[in-house]
Amino acid sequence: MAKLGPYQSQSFRHWQGLTLENHLGALFQKEPQKASNTMVQLLATRRGKTLETYLNSLPSKTFERDDEYTWDVVSSSRRNIPIVEVRDYSGAPYQANTNVTGRFYVVFPEDWFSDGAVIVGEHNEMYPIRLLSDGRAEGTNFVYLAELWGSVQSIPADEFARGKRWSLEYYPVEKELSRGIGTLHFSAPTSMRNEWSRLRMKYKVPGSMMDEVLICGIPMIDNKTNKVVVKDRWMAMVDYRFEEEFQDHKNYCYMFGRSNRNNEGEYTNFGKSGLAIKFGAGIREQMEVSNVYYYNTFSLRLIENALYELSANKLDLNERVFVMRTGMRGAEQFSKAVLNDVSGWTAFQMNADNLGVIQRTSSPLHQTALAAGFQFTEFRAPNGIVLKVEVDPMYDEDVRNKIQHPNGGPAESYRYDILYVGSQDQPNIQLAKLKNHDEFRGYYWGPFRNPFTGEMNNGNAATDEDSATIHKMWIGGVFILDPTRTVSIIPSILQ
Question: Residue 187 CB: number of other CB atoms within 10 A?
Answer without folding.
Answer: 12
